């Protein structure tokens, strides 16, 4: 049978299935009743095993065709609910009607051979996997074109959730925990994949309404800006947080009320979770960290933020110089978070308080708020101390190297530190220019309590040489207030020009803590294109970039956001 092509077989797999039922009835009525046969596993199920497997193969194609017809019918009717109390459409029922029929046929075989049963359940699981994943992918594609159609989006998400529930019921009816390990793993993984699809759809929907959420958060910011300092009554203090968030909460209430009526509890919970994440993240981006007056410039990837800050500092983006909030305004924003938590908790009908409090988005926002109230010195100290080796310049391609010697002398009586830096020379500088090349080395000390001290010094320029020799020595004085691990030396090589801005060739950072361990330190320092940042240090940069009237903050952000210029050839 197996060697004959399917189209040339005179006896179809369905006929063999019917024959197996005939053999089963004969066995049950004529063989099984014999005492000697009661504890013996019958042989006939093994005879029919290849024909049953062929039946599974044929039914895979039938199942997929049935699935596509069910989805097409659903689309033609606009994904209507099958009943008032059922929040999903007919295609889910149609798909599982077919799968349940196959399960019933297998169970009706009433096989006495556990090995054959395991093989059939494993093969049936493959069919389930193919059908349900194909259905989920079809729902994904439909969802992409349902933007703005809230009712259809609700039905599609409900369909996936009902798919998961029906899969669990099918799993239990197949034997559940008694199934063979590989089959259990396959079906459990399928459930996880479907759950991930539901998470994806929920996130996609919330992302579609996020521009509107962001508009309302811009309104929150405008309301905050109206609140000035001065005496405020206790009644006013209590009302202010609610007033600034009222338009946002009204919009969210309208959306969530609709979904509470249109979505199952599990789907609603996912939408609430994604909405919470979007609201809190946008509060951080739009109000706390954004230095831009136009929210379209809000960028999320680290490389984009670096480029963004760089462009901002050199006047290539518009900025609202009054974007920074006062301490009182930050306090009001912090109190308004309690109103938002109450809204999403919904007196126990929404998200759990603990889940809200421990969400990464809220932790990030609270940390950003705590940083916003710190002094510039404190922020620079945190920035320097949290720098790790992987945050140093990207050196997959380096642009030369600089020979540096550093010595630190600490006054035993005052505790002040004297940092002596000798720039010996540079080597293999990678820079092409159409004019004269005049490289020089710029040294900048970074850390707290430096506002009254000299922070930046430069060597003399050398003309038309890519291996310049300097042999120049510089001194930096540091106070006694902090340990040396709060300070670092920034090294940059630049091309001088009288007529235009000097061009950055490459840079690097030396932490003074590594110098302190040895007392004296020297090395060839490779030059990278820019500094890398983790999330904490990116947050600090954004906060400092608000402080346009603070010379230390402006200088530090310019230093850290600098990146290699394009060559002029």
Automatic annotation (TrEMBL):
Keyword Repeat assigned to the entry: answer is yes
Q: Any idea which GO molecular function terms this record carries?
A: calmodulin binding; diacylglycerol binding; syntaxin-1 binding; zinc ion binding
Tell me the domain of life: Eukaryota
Q: Which PROSITE patterns match?
A: C2, MHD1, MHD2
Going by the UniProt record, its keywords in alphabetical order are: Metal-binding, Repeat, Zinc, Zinc-finger
Q: Which InterPro entries match?
A: C2_dom, C2_domain_sf, MUN_dom, Munc13_1, Munc13_dom-2, Unc-13
**SUPFAM superfamilies from the UniProt entry:** C2 domain (Calcium/lipid-binding domain, CaLB)
Pfam families in the record: C2, MUN
What sequence ranges are listed for the domain MHD1? 17-139
- The yes or no answer to whether the keyword Transport is present is no
Supply one GO CC term from the record.
Answer: synaptic vesicle membrane
* GO biological process annotation, one example: presynaptic dense core vesicle exocytosis
Domain MHD2, residue spans: 242-383
Q: Domain C2: where?
A: 400-525
Q: What is this protein called?
A: Uncharacterized protein
Which classification does the entry list for the species? Eukaryota, Metazoa, Spiralia, Gnathifera, Rotifera
């Amino acid at each position: 049978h197996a060697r004959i092509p399917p189209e040339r077989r005179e006896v179809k797999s369905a006929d063999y299935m019917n024959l197996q039922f005939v053999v089963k009835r004969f066995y049950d009525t004529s063989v099984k009743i014999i005492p000697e046969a009661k504890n013996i596993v019958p042989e006939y199920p093994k005879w029919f095993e290849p024909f049953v497997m062929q039946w599974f193969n044929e039914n895979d194609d039938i199942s997929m065709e049935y699935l596509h017809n069910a989805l097409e019918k659903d689309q033609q009717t606009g994904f209507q609910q099958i009943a008032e109390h059922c929040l999903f459409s007919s295609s889910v029922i149609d798909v599982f009607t077919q799968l349940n029929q196959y399960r019933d046929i297998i169970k009706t075989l009433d096989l006495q051979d556990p090995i054959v049963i395991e093989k059939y359940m494993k093969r049936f699981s493959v069919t389930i996997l193919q059908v349900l994943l194909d259905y989920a992918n079809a729902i994904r594609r439909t969802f992409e074109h349902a933007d703005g159609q809230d009712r259809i989006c609700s039905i599609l998400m409900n369909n996936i959730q009902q798919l998961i529930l029906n899969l669990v019921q099918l799993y239990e009816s197949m034997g559940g925990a008694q199934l063979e390990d590989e089959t259990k793993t396959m079906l459990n993984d399928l459930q996880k994949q479907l759950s991930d699809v539901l998470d994806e759809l929920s996130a996609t929907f919330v992302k579609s309404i996020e521009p509107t959420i962001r508009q309302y958060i811009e309104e929150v910011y405008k309301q905050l800006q109206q609140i000035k300092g001065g005496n405020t009554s206790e009644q006013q203090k209590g009302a202010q947080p609610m007033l600034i968030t009222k338009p946002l909460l009204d919009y969210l209430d309208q959306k969530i009320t609709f979904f509470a009526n249109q979505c199952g509890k599990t789907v609603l919970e996912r939408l609430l979770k994604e909405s919470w994440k979007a609201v809190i993240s946008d509060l951080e981006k739009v109000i706390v960290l954004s230095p831009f007056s136009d929210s379209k410039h809000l960028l999320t990837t680290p490389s984009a933020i670096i480029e963004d800050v760089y462009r901002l500092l050199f006047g290539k983006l518009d900025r609202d110089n009054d974007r920074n909030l006062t301490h009182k305004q930050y306090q009001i924003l912090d109190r308004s978070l309690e109103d938002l938590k109450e809204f999403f908790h919904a007196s126990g009908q929404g998200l759990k308080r603990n889940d809200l409090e421990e969400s990464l988005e809220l932790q990030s926002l609270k940390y950003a708020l705590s940083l916003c109230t710190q002094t510039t010195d404190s922020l620079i100290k945190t920035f320097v101390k949290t720098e790790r080796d992987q945050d140093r310049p990207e050196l997959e391609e380096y642009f030369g190297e600089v020979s540096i010697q550093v010595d630190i002398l600490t006054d035993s009586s005052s505790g002040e530190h004297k940092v002596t830096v000798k720039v010996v020379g540079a080597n293999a500088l990678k820079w092409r220019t159409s004019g004269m090349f005049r490289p020089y080395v710029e040294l900048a000390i970074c850390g707290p309590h430096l506002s009254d001290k000299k922070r930046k010094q430069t060597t003399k320029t050398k003309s038309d040489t890519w291996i310049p020799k300097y042999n120049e020595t510089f001194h930096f004085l540091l106070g006694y207030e902090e340990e040396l691990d709060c300070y670092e030396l920034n090294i940059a090589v630049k091309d001088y020009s009288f007529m235009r801005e000097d061009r950055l060739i490459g840079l690097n950072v030396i932490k003074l803590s590594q110098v302190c361990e040895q007392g004296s330190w020297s090395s060839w320092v490779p030059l990278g294109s820019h500094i890398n940042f983790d999330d904490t240090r990116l947050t600090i940069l954004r906060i400092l970039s608000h402080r346009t009237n603070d010379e230390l903050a402006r200088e530090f952000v310019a230093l850290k956001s600098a990146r290699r210029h394009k060559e002029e050839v």
